[in-house]
Amino acid sequence: MNIVVLVKQVPDSGAERTLSASDNTVERGSANNVINEMDEYAIEEALKIKEAHGGEVTVLTMGPERATESIRKALSMGPDKAVHVQDDALHGSCAVATSKVLATALGTLNADLIICGAESTDGRVQVLPHMIAERLGIAALTGARKLTVDGAQLTAERQTDEGYEVVTAATPAVVSVWDTINEPRYPSFKGIMAAKKKPVQTLSLADLGVAADEVGAAGATSAVVEFAKRPVRTAGTKVVDEGEGGVQLVQYLVTEKFV
Amino acid sequence: MAEVLVVVEASQAAGVKKVTLEMLTIARGLGEVSAVVLGGSGAAAQFAEKLGEYGATKIYAGEGEEVDGYLVAPKATAVAELVKRVQPAAVLIASSQEGKEIAGRLAVKLDNGLLTDAVELAADGTATQVVFAGAAIVKSKVTKGLPIVTIRPNSITPEPAPASPAVEQLTVVATDADKLTKVVERVAEQKGSRPELTEASIVVSGGRGVASADNFKVVEEIADLLGGAVGASRAAVDSGYYPHQFQVGQTGKTVSPQLYVAIGISGAIQHRAGMQTSKTIVAVNKDAEAPIFELADYGVVGDLNKVVPQAAEEIRKRK
């Protein structure tokens, strides 16, 4: 099975994040950038399917030059090769344009299965998998907490607010996964060394035949008008339980009219 | 006045969800409110009264197996066809997983911009979003096409504005591509009568400190006494104490209730990302240095197994 995993480099969600003052896009220059956490689960799922059914795993990333770090990190887990869509004109692309670029790149990769994280920790928009499926006219099984592959038949348990839905489709398909689906492996030393030699193909917009004015700030379908830091929460009252902590807590809730 | 389409978030079991009432309230500031019900046969009839109560003057009903038997795609097709026909001023959709997915497909079909997770939407289409785990507030606009905006639950207080909506049945013709992913089963796992996590005005969450799945009854007990939903930190979910759909945090649900009670939760940034826009935060933790106390309006340093049951008992006494 030919599997492509979508990997996004994002600012570390454990550190302070902001927007760039110059153009209101996510500040990536000064941030500590990492693989979007949910994508590690997508890589793991792809590797498990390859191990069980054979095939090849390709990492596909759209991002600036420094996303190379995340691509090598992804490859160190075990995928065979990577494709990096990189072009200065992509800076500031909206979700609609991003889906166009990724779908075009995917069109050249002939994937049976496209796996990605259910959302990124920076935008948390969750729309890309269905946008890509819509553009490619293929199936989408999103929000999977469990995935079964039986030949060309895919079955996923999709997490919902009430419980889950069982959804099925044949390949080719896009599958997005939550972090409950597996436990991603840590790269081995051997994997890290091997990743340095794995092929990474770089594609520009010209290579893909996408016009520069369809993407980036020029082609954006939405724009941030302004942004401001939210006031930081401050600590309120803290009491140490000396036998009446529960009662004190309820007294506070009564004062605030929750009880 | 142009129509504003509100794509109804509802389920047979839960009825019309609160976020739908919020969207109807917001939509009244933008135009003539039309609700779009997409679901199984009879869905519109089931929800019509509630939708009218909150100001829907028209209901478009796309019902049946053609809509409900496949994942998301036919719903986006139905909305797209409706948008082309009625040329609405805006489309409002819930910021649920499915809502965002409909919005995403709709944006591609119409080659139109979209904004997700708005907590406010002004009459001129400017949306307010809270981003980066509550660290920043952003105002955004769709710059291509009409505003397609998903609204985060618990953003505003819904206000009734009774109307008598007329129901118009839509003929939804799903394409072959729309029917590629079948929904073969819908399984309800959530038990009891607790409110839904993202919509609850009170959320009580347990963390690693709860120490076992069995001991989560301590969290559930006080949640039920307060009429709240139960949540869990990622540490608690990863340890198998509570199911994943109740996870609050960066990789789980984002909640913004009036009251958030954190029990045995240290308050790692992963967790804070999902709850720090809550109005009031209360914490119980045995570690006085736990970061959760930095944002708690009221904190009790102590053993949760003593403090929480005592609090439950005190609430019972006062009832």
Q: What's the helix count of chain A?
A: 8
Helical element count of chain B?
A: 9
Proportion of strand residues of chain B: 25-35%
Helicity range of chain B: 25-40%
Strand order of the largest sheet of chain A: 9-8-7-10-6-1-4-5-11
Kindly give the count of domains of chain A.
1
Helix content of chain A: 25-40%
**What is the CATH homologous superfamily assignment of the largest domain in chain B?**
HUPs
Residue fraction in strands of chain A: 25-35%
Number of strands of chain B: 17
Report the end-to-end length of chain A measured between terminal Cα atoms: 58 Å
Query: How many strand elements of chain A?
Result: 13
CATH topology of the largest domain in chain B: Rossmann fold
Number of domains of chain B: 2
CATH fold name of chain A: Rossmann fold
The name of the CATH superfamily of chain A reads: HUPs
For the CA atoms, what is the radius of gyration of chain B?
21 Å
Averaged pLDDT of chain A, please? 94
CATH architecture of the largest domain in chain B: 3-Layer(aba) Sandwich
Topology order of chain A in helix (H) and strand (E) letters: EEEHEHEHEHEEEEHEHHEEH
Which structural class best describes the helix and strand composition of chain A? Answer: alpha/beta
Structure characterization notes:
Chain B: This is Electron transfer flavoprotein subunit alpha. The complex is a heterodimer of chains A (259) and B (319). Chain A has 259 residues and is α/β, with parallel strands linked by helices. Chain A has one domain: HUPs (Rossmann fold, 3-Layer(aba) Sandwich), CATH 3.40.50. Chain A has 8 helices and 13 strands. In chain A, the strands form 2 sheets. Chain A has a 9-stranded mixed sheet with strand order 9-8-7-10-6-1-4-5-11, with helices on both faces. Chain A has a two-stranded antiparallel sheet with strand order 2-3. In chain A, helix 2 packs across helix 5 and helix 3 (95-107) crosses helix 4 (128-136). The N and C termini of chain A lie far apart (58 Å). By secondary structure, chain B is an alpha/beta fold. Chain B has 2 domains: 3-179, 3-Layer(aba) Sandwich (Rossmann fold); 202-318, 3-Layer(aba) Sandwich (Rossmann fold). In chain B, 28% of the residues lie in helices and 27% in strands. Chain B contains 9 helices and 17 strands. Chain B has helices at residues 18-27, 43-53, 65-68, 73-86, 97-110, 216-226, 234-238, 269-272, 304-318, and strands spanning 3-7, 10-11, 15-16, 32-39, 58-63, 90-94, 115-121, 127-131, 136-142, 148-151, 166-169, 182-188, 202-206, 229-232, 259-263, 280-285, 298-301. A 9-stranded mixed sheet of chain B has the order 9-8-7-10-6-1-4-5-11, sandwiched between helices. In chain B, strands 14-13-15-16-17 form a 5-stranded parallel sheet. At the A-B interface, helix 3, helix 4, strand 7, strand 9 and strand 12 of A face helix 5, strand 7, strand 9, strand 12 and strand 16 of B. Strand 9 of chain A pairs antiparallel with strand 12 of chain B, so a sheet runs across the interface.
